[in-house]
């Protein structure tokens, strides 16, 4: 690992954009797996662009260059497509969180500094998206939950609960080492970060500001630093 400049507080600061790219294994997928992945990617792009209800199996089949039998070999129906698409999306999000916050812990022993570094790296990932974040599948499922079966909605709920639990764990480690300067419910603060991530995506799309999510993450970072920094 190359040396990292010391932060004025004594913690190590990374250079910008050092989060490694998210990769899902080094082995090339077999043909059937590659076809399945292509279907999921096409379906996700369509759902994020116009919603699940407006995304038809026929258009996914046409875009993927498949026959109907080829599609149904991989997915029994639209609900199974939705389940696997959501699982894939959530796994990708969690891989990004792992990369950013694990890197933060590698670079700083202090829980606060590690979390601040992780947030900065997460903001850098959002900065590198040329047209802003394409949208959130979790939000899409939430807004159109009547279109999905119970299992899809449950996958969605569990994903958000895992995010909240992850962020709460980081905050509890920080509070154990450095109590907050003002009374704060750590659960609420963890939920706030989930809200920042989801809300930043929505604000960026509505306002036409590709950097909105990055800015919201950095503003939350300032709040955490002010709340937990030693006097």
UniProtKB/TrEMBL annotation:
Q: Where is this region: Disordered?
A: 1-28
Tell me yes or no: is tRNA-binding among this UniProt entry's keywords.
Answer: no
Start and end of every HTH tetR-type domain? 33-93
Residue ranges for the DNA-binding region feature of this UniProt entry: 56-75
Q: Which residues form a coiled coil?
A: none
Q: Which UniProt keywords apply?
A: DNA-binding, Transcription, Transcription regulation
The record's InterPro entries line, in alphabetical order, gives: Homeodomain-like_sf, HTH_TetR, Tet_transcr_reg_TetR-rel_C_sf
- A Pfam family of this chain: TetR_N
- Organism superkingdom: Bacteria
Q: What is this protein called?
A: TetR/AcrR family transcriptional regulator
Q: Which organism is it from?
A: Paracoccus fontiphilus
């Amino acid at each position: 690992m190359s040396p990292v400049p010391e932060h004025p507080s004594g913690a190590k600061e990374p250079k910008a954009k050092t989060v490694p790219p998210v990769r899902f294994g080094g082995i090339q997928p077999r043909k059937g797996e590659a076809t399945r992945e292509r279907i999921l990617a096409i379906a996700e792009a369509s759902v994020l662009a116009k919603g699940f209800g407006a995304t038809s199996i026929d258009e996914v089949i046409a875009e993927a260059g498949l026959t109907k039998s080829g599609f149904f070999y991989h997915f029994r129906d639209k609900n199974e497509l939705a389940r696997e698409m959501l699982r894939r999306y959530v796994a990708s999000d969690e891989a990004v969180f792992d990369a950013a916050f694990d890197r933060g812990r590698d670079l700083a022993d202090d829980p606060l500094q590690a979390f601040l570094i992780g947030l900065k790296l997460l903001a850098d990932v959002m900065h590198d998206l040329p047209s802003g974040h394409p949208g959130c599948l979790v939000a899409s499922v939430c807004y159109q939950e009547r279109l999905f079966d119970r299992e899809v909605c449950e996958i969605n709920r569990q994903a958000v609960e895992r995010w909240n639990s992850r962020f709460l764990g980081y905050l509890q480690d920080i509070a154990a080492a450095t109590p907050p300067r003002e009374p704060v419910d750590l659960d609420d603060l963890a939920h706030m970060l989930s809200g920042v991530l989801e809300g930043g995506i929505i604000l960026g799309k509505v306002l036409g500001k590709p950097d909105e999510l990055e800015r919201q993450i950095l503003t939350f970072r300032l709040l955490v630093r002010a709340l937990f920094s030693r006097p």
